[in-house]
Amino acid sequence: MAETIAFRMNLFPGMAGEYKRRHDAIWPELAALLKEAGVADYSIWLDEETNHLFGVLKRSDDHGMDRLPMEPIVRRWWDMMADIMETEPDNTPVQVPLAKMFHLP
């Protein structure tokens, strides 16, 4: 059974167009790696008033998401994104887990 998780990230003001442009051209190798790690049905939504990005994805029970931060292609993607969004000192995106409050299946 798949688990759905959600999280929030912070986009710098004025960077929505660039963020979308970069994701519209996501590297095929990165997309494949996410799928190999058990990630499916992944979407990111923008609250234009706050510049908050909301990520929602499904992951398999045997997912390998915990290994993704060690993958060179993931590190390169994060390095490329660091100029348009809030990151930790190592360029990992700042992510705040979101608690599920309601679900209508």
Give the topology.
Elements (H helix, E strand, L loop, with lengths): L2 E8 L5 H9 L3 H9 L2 E9 L4 E8 L12 H10 L14 E2 L8
Summarize this structure briefly.
The protein is α+β, with helices and mostly antiparallel strands and about 100 residues long. The chain has helices at about 15-25, 30-35, 70-80; strands at about 5-10, 40-45, 50-60, 95. It is built from 3 helices and 4 strands, in the order βααββαβ.
Describe it:
The protein is of the alpha+beta class. It has one domain: Alpha-Beta Plaits. 27% of the residues lie in helices and 26% in strands. It has a four-stranded antiparallel beta sheet. The radius of gyration is 14 Å and the shape is globular. The chain starts with a strand and ends in an 8-residue tail after the last strand. It catalyses: alpha-L-rhamnose = beta-L-rhamnose. Pathway: Carbohydrate metabolism; L-rhamnose metabolism. Keywords: Carbohydrate metabolism, Cytoplasm, Isomerase, Rhamnose metabolism.
Provide key terms for this protein.
105 residues, alpha+beta, Alpha-Beta Plaits, 4-stranded antiparallel β-sheet, 3 helices, 4 strands, 27% helix, Dimeric_a/b-barrel
